[in-house]
Amino acid sequence: MLDAFDRCRLHDDFQPVTELGAYPYYHPVEERLATGEVVVGGRVLVAAGSNDYLGLSADPRLKDAACRAIRSLGTGTSGSRLVNGSLALHETLEQRLAAFLGQEAAMVTPTGFLANLALGALVGPRDTVLADQLIHASLIDAIRLSRARLRRYRHNDLDHLERLLGGCDPAAAGLIVTEGMFSTTGSLCDVPGTAALARRHGVRLVLDGAHDLGLLGPGGRGAAEHHGLLPAVDLHTLAFSKCFGTTGGAVAGPEQIVVYLRHHARSMVFSAALSPASTAAALAALDIIETEPERRHRALAAAVRLRADLAGLGFGTGASPTTIIPVHVGDVVLCCRLWRELFDEGVFATAMVPPSVPDGQALIRVSTTALHTDAQLDRIASAFATAGRRLGLIP
């Protein structure tokens, strides 16, 4: 037989990137400061690619809550939620999340990835899942594991979605799965149009709010609330690793569905439960999300300012209305070189290359947080100006 290990090689593009000293991944952070900065290799850099949009991961209130939980409950949960890993703290968080999202129940999972994998228990081989072309890998994996038929529609293309819905087997179940705020481009789901199609064709709408819950909407309830359509979503998934400043995830929806997933979702049944520290931190974060709207206002305002600065320099930044600013480069090697130049200028951004983005669409993902000061935004823009001119990307 062939040796399976022989196939385990990085993409050819990474060889020149590595030779240039521009490999952009797995750089260990030694310290995460409460000032929107990180320490990498002994240098203090502006964190310009973080998903910590509200700046809560270093908030003293989350740290204190986590420490109290460790002192009373320990560092782990000893088993899955199904058997011996459930905590009263988990149930408190679930009740709070359900009430926050206007749903009957919620189920807390160890990660956001596992929350999305749980969706695989809702459909089977005869069913069809219609999914936006830009959905997260965890959602794709959930559908693959379910063995349901995956039909992907062009990003936010409702005409394409409607044609695919029209071709579905009426005797089989169907789901529409999409994201509220897309993690690479920062674009928003067309919730009004998508929800209307779901109702018209009798399929359920599942919305992954990993990036938008806590950030968008008058009450921070995400893209659906932003559009005034929170009740139109049948099932929410979310991740605590973004606006909640910790780790973990959850699924929120009708009680019958949540109870079913508690017993049938393999990612729930066979995973050790979320740690006490992360559970307590998520609860503390939810308190802040509900009472300090100025945090999301600041993060979004910072993005407006920085996006205008980068576009003014000549970079293509798309039309994202959120905290994510995609700086389009195209070529993988050139994108990684830009990442390295920014790093040398004191800015720690994120390089997005295939398969995270389509071929030929490599980009630098910049994101703003509530912690970014005007001086830091200027520093990011200045770094892009220097790096972009050095590489011939802008005039």
Automatic annotation (TrEMBL):
Its EC number is 2.3.1.47. It catalyses: 6-carboxyhexanoyl-[ACP] + L-alanine + H(+) = (8S)-8-amino-7-oxononanoate + holo-[ACP] + CO2. Its cofactor is pyridoxal 5'-phosphate. This is 8-amino-7-oxononanoate synthase. Keywords: Transferase. Residues 49-383 form the Aminotransferase class I/classII large domain. SUPFAM superfamilies: PLP-dependent transferases (SSF53383). PANTHER family: CLASS II AMINOTRANSFERASE/8-AMINO-7-OXONONANOATE SYNTHASE, LD36009P.
